[in-house]
C-alpha cells in the first residue's frame, strides 16, 4: 500500500505508529478528519495476518467514524486504533498503560473507547495515563461498556428499516439471521426475542451460539450457511466486508440491518444491493448508539440524555431511506451525503475568524 497516496485519496489527517518493547504494544492510531471536533473512535485488538492489513483496517475504520459521528449529530471527528495481537492471550497491564501515554501525547486530537477485542477494564488502564478515553468504569460520570447501548440503537434502527421494507416496524414473527453473536448481537437478540422475532444465529465461537440457542431459542447454523438461510432481515454483527460479490447473490433477506462496521466490501456493493431491491441500512448510521453513549461521558455521563439521543437513530435511518428514495440513489450514498453535507457546513462556518486565546491578536492585548 502506498500510504501517503491512500491518505491523500481519502483525505486522512494523521497516522501514528506506537511501539513499546516491554509490553509488546504494536498499535496504529488513524485520525481521519477533525473538522467537527476531536476524533473519537474505539480501539480494536485483533490478530492481523499482515501489518498492511492492520493499517488498512485502522484507516477504513477511522473514516467510518468520521461519517458515523457526523451523521449522529455529534461534534466529534473520526479516528480509530488497532492493536496487533490476540486479545485472549497477549494483553497485559503495561500494554494499555503504554498505549494511554501515546494517546496523551496527541493532546486530545484522539479519544478512544472499546471495540472488538477490548473491554472496560482495558479502558480503565488507559485512563490511568490519560483523560482522553471513554467507556470507563472507574469514576463517577463514567458510561461503562457501550455494547448494550449499541445494540439498543441497532434494534431501533432495524425497526425503521423494517418499516421501509415491509410497511410496518413490528418485528413480531419476522425471521432475523444474525452473523456473530458477540457483545452487541447478544443484546440485540434479546430485544428481538422479546418482541417475538425468530432468530437464526451463527458464530465461530461455539459458546456464543449455545447461549443464543439456550436463552432465545435461536436456530444455529454454520458460519458459511448464514448467507443462504430463508429470513426477512439479515443482521451482520461480526467483522467487516461481508457484503461482497460472493455473498450478496446468496442473501434472501429483503432488509439488511446489523451492527458490524464497514459491512460493504466497497461502496459499489451498496449499488448492487440497491439494484437487487434490498433495503441496506448503512452500518454507521445504525450502529452509532455506542459512540453516542461514550461521547456523553465527555459531559459527565447522564444515561437518560444519552438514551434520548440514541432514540434518534430511528429517525436518522428513516431520513437516509427518504433521501435514497427521493434521489433514487443507494442508501450508502444517501448516508454519505448526509454526513458530508454536515461536515462541509461546519467547515464553512468555522472558517470565520473567532478571537481566542491562541490567535495572533492575543499578543497585542
Ligand atoms: N461494541 C460496540 O459498542 C460497537 C461495535 N460495533 C461493531 O459491531 C461488530 C461487533 O462488535 P462486538 O459485538 O463488540 O464484538 P464481539 O467481538 O463481542 O463480537 C463479534 C462476534 O463475531 C464473531 N465472529 C467473528 N468472525 C466471525 C465469522 N466469520 N462468522 C461468524 N461469527 C464471527 C466473534 O466470534 C464474536 O462472537 C464489530 O464490527 C464492531 O466494530 C460498532 C459500533 C459499536
Ligand atoms: C465502540 C464505540 C464506542 C466507538 C466505535 O469505535 C464505533 O462505534 O465503532
From TrEMBL:
<dbReference type="GO" id="GO:0000166">
    <property type="term" value="F:nucleotide binding"/>
</dbReference>
<dbReference type="InterPro" id="IPR033524">
    <property type="entry name" value="Glu/Leu/Phe/Val_DH_AS"/>
</dbReference>
<dbReference type="InterPro" id="IPR006095">
    <property type="entry name" value="Glu/Leu/Phe/Val/Trp_DH"/>
</dbReference>
<dbReference type="InterPro" id="IPR046346">
    <property type="entry name" value="Aminoacid_DH-like_N_sf"/>
</dbReference>
<dbReference type="Pfam" id="PF00208">
    <property type="entry name" value="ELFV_dehydrog"/>
</dbReference>
<dbReference type="InterPro" id="IPR036291">
    <property type="entry name" value="NAD(P)-bd_dom_sf"/>
</dbReference>
<dbReference type="InterPro" id="IPR006096">
    <property type="entry name" value="Glu/Leu/Phe/Val/Trp_DH_C"/>
</dbReference>
<dbReference type="Pfam" id="PF02812">
    <property type="entry name" value="ELFV_dehydrog_N"/>
</dbReference>
<feature type="domain" description="Glutamate/phenylalanine/leucine/valine/L-tryptophan dehydrogenase C-terminal">
    <location>
        <begin position="144"/>
        <end position="351"/>
    </location>
</feature>
<feature type="active site" description="Proton donor/acceptor">
    <location>
        <position position="80"/>
    </location>
</feature>
<comment type="similarity">
    <text>Belongs to the Glu/Leu/Phe/Val dehydrogenases family.</text>
</comment>
<keyword id="KW-0520">NAD</keyword>
<keyword id="KW-0547">Nucleotide-binding</keyword>
<keyword id="KW-0101">Branched-chain amino acid catabolism</keyword>
<dbReference type="GO" id="GO:0050049">
    <property type="term" value="F:L-leucine dehydrogenase activity"/>
</dbReference>
<feature type="binding site">
    <location>
        <begin position="180"/>
        <end position="185"/>
    </location>
    <ligand>
        <name>NAD(+)</name>
    </ligand>
</feature>
<protein>
    <recommendedName>
        <fullName>Leucine dehydrogenase</fullName>
        <ecNumber>1.4.1.9</ecNumber>
    </recommendedName>
</protein>
<keyword id="KW-0560">Oxidoreductase</keyword>
<comment type="pathway">
    <text>Amino-acid degradation; L-leucine degradation; 4-methyl-2-oxopentanoate from L-leucine (dehydrogenase route): step 1/1.</text>
</comment>
<dbReference type="InterPro" id="IPR006097">
    <property type="entry name" value="Glu/Leu/Phe/Val/Trp_DH_dimer"/>
</dbReference>
<dbReference type="GO" id="GO:0009083">
    <property type="term" value="P:branched-chain amino acid catabolic process"/>
</dbReference>
<dbReference type="InterPro" id="IPR016211">
    <property type="entry name" value="Glu/Phe/Leu/Val/Trp_DH_bac/arc"/>
</dbReference>
